[in-house]
Specification:
The protein has helices at residues 21-25, 76-85, 127-131, 157-161, 195-200, 207-214, 231-238; strands at 3-4, 61-66, 100-107, 113-119, 137-139, 145-147, 167-169, 188-190, 220-224, 254-257. With 259 residues, the protein is α+β, with helices and mostly antiparallel strands.
Amino acid sequence: MTKACESATRPRPTENHRPDRRRFLGGAACAGALTLVPGVAFISLAGARSSEQPVSDEHRWGMLIDANKCAEGCDACVRGCVEEHGLWGHDRPETDAQWIRKVTVRDKQTGHVTSLPLMCQHCQYPPCVDVCPTGASFRRADGIVLVDKHTCIGCRYCMMACPYKARSFIHEALDQQKPYAPRGKGTVESCTLCVHRVDAGGERIPACAEACNAEGHRAMLFGDLNDPESELSQSLTQYASEELRADLGLRLGIRYRGL
């Protein structure tokens, strides 16, 4: 079955062939201007969940999205993300940021149309990380792909490299930011899988999945891909699922059912 979706021709990177990002532009990170709301400080998300529980590859966080349960016209996941992360500009309820968005996938052969959410796919081999000249785009050991706003220079190479168009650029100064989700003018941002919730431990799931559950759809299942006993792993074992653009070999943390 052939489906129309966003595409890219970039081959999968290998462990033995990684661009030297830092040498590419030398000290260019110093050239980027960063604007923050007073009192909002960037926090380190790379090193540890807490002093007692460091980030490790013991976990690999991911999600299964069931397109059969995703209601056409419903944007609860988008609204949940916007509210959780404060994705708004100057007194505007709207946002240009696309941490998560609803897209339509059409089967060219049958004409069947599927509505589904699309966000950063949290690749094991993320193209955004490979092209970043300053190392601002990085992948944590637990599989979450993030942007370090301290070193992002706004070159937007990562936006061009992403096959899923999952990143956004901040063009203007922002207000009413969330302390756990700082954002800066002139930087790139994308879905973090609500890393602040993940690092806090407990039973909290990403805001998009929480909002979807609240609407009664339960189309988004979050969990640990490395834990064979997790509900996510059990579901992936029991039911067929697939990656978007699996031909790229990026080994995504987000999988879909019902495409």
